[in-house]
Amino acid sequence: MSRVGKQPVKVPSGVKVRITTDLFRAEGPKGKIDQPVHPDIMVKHDDAAGEIRVSRPADSKRFKALHGLTQRLVQNAVTGVSEGFEKRLQIVGVGYNARAQGPRLTLNLGFSNPVIMDVPEGVAVETPAPTVIVIKGPDKQKVGQFAAEIRRKRPPEPYKGKGVRYENEYVRRKAGKAFVSGQ
Description:
By secondary structure, the protein is an alpha+beta fold.
């Protein structure tokens, strides 16, 4: 049995769950998520216990992989609509900053022009400080993907550490060229 797949998914109060043969839908205070489900994987909701169980038809390698994957996707959907997900990015560098203006994010990252990015639907972006970006949303994949796209605009460089990084990300620093006098 899959260690991840056999774990039940707890459904908190305030979250509505609907399961069809190929779709899992979760609705809660933070939003609504539709998650496609492989037709061979069974997803069952037990109202009395307040949990969701995922099972597979056989022990082939393919079904084992789908079993754990489906359980995690269902878990992320339930967690997302009840609590939501958040990624925090830091901007390091002189003159580097960010500004959230409605559905757009403006980044000044040392290029000749500012980088303007459209915020995807279902994702909220805040800039509590000019060098901090907070990305929130119910869909873990969308939040993580948008954070990765922002980081990709100017990844941290190893000499001075300038660029966009995740909060608490360790940037391995390199020593620069040392001045050596001629003999």
